[in-house]
Automatic annotation (TrEMBL):
GO terms for biological process: phenylalanyl-tRNA aminoacylation. Binds 2 magnesium ions per tetramer. This is Phenylalanine--tRNA ligase alpha subunit. It comes from Halalkalibacterium halodurans. InterPro entries: aa-tRNA-synth_II, aa-tRNA-synth_II/BPL/LPL, Phe-tRNA-synth_IIc_asu, Phe-tRNA_ligase_II_N, Phe_tRNA_ligase_alpha1_bac, Phenylalanyl-tRNA_Synthase, tRNA-bd_arm. GO terms for cellular component: cytoplasm. Mg(2+) binds at residue 256. Tetramer of two alpha and two beta subunits. Residues 2-29 form a coiled coil.
Amino acid sequence: MREQLEALRDDAIKKIEQAQEKKVVQEIRVKYLGKKGPVTEVLRGMGKLSPEERPVIGQLANDVREAIGKAIESKMEALEQAEIHRKLQEETIDVTLPGRPVLKGGAHPLTATITEVEDLFIGLGFSVAEGPQIETDYYNFEALNLPKDHPARDMQDSFYFTDELLLRTQTSPVQARTMEKYKGKGPIKIICPGKVFRRDDDDATHSHQFMQIEGLYVDHGVRMSDLKGVLQAFAKSFFGEERSIRLRPSFFPFTEPSVEVDVSCGICHGDGCRFCKQTGWIEILGAGMVHPRVLEMSGFNPNEYSGFAFGMGVERLSMLKYGIDDIRHFYTNDRRFLAQFKRV
Ligand SMILES: [Zn+2]
């Protein structure tokens, strides 16, 4: 009986040691220590033993049960630890992986152009003025010498909310509003950048929404040569020192005399090429001396004050400077297009 018990113990412990799963160990527990297990079976035969042997075998049987129990317990613990370890291994985050690159933005080419022009004019003593995009008919047209039936209004058809309220077609109303604020006392030296709107069919060079920068200088004795000097400085700074400008007579209702301003072609340098349509010159903006009536309407005495004004399209400047061939590129938010201007 003693050998039987010891053999059972060794057999059970060997199986426990070999077990790789908790389920198997549980089965061993049931098999060896259960009520129908071999140890119980052996103890049933105790009646045949002599009274001296009984306590000895009984003690041995208890020791065997205890040894098997302990082996099961420590094995279960070992398997539990192994499982935790395995889980930790599987769920580790590898912090040494390189991160995803952060997308760095850059200024939109229109913003970059406005900033550059603003910086230049601030350097010339101008300050930046802004005004509302929803304007009254009065400030957008009438105060600029464009009465209700003026034919030049046709060139600037707008989006109307009511007969009197519209999306401004130019940044000039900011000039009118600023002149009013100064109550007939100069000097005024401002540039007005901002969005404007016109009822136009969109194509490569037209958009129903675009940006302008206008400038206004009103003071005692402002002359046409002052206008030319300022625009010359602007063209050289924006397009390059080697570029020159020329003034051509033109018409605007709010200036007299009025001029179109051209810059010498940067590709052929005046000889004529396809880019400048063989003229050697590229039109960049309109300008002129502020019309006496406009001064008067805004509270300035035209016998005392004179001034010049100019207006340019930001898109056109950007297109010329960066060689962009379609105005719609500015508004489509295509990252392949925008990424080219990161360093501008
Ligand atoms: Zn050319």
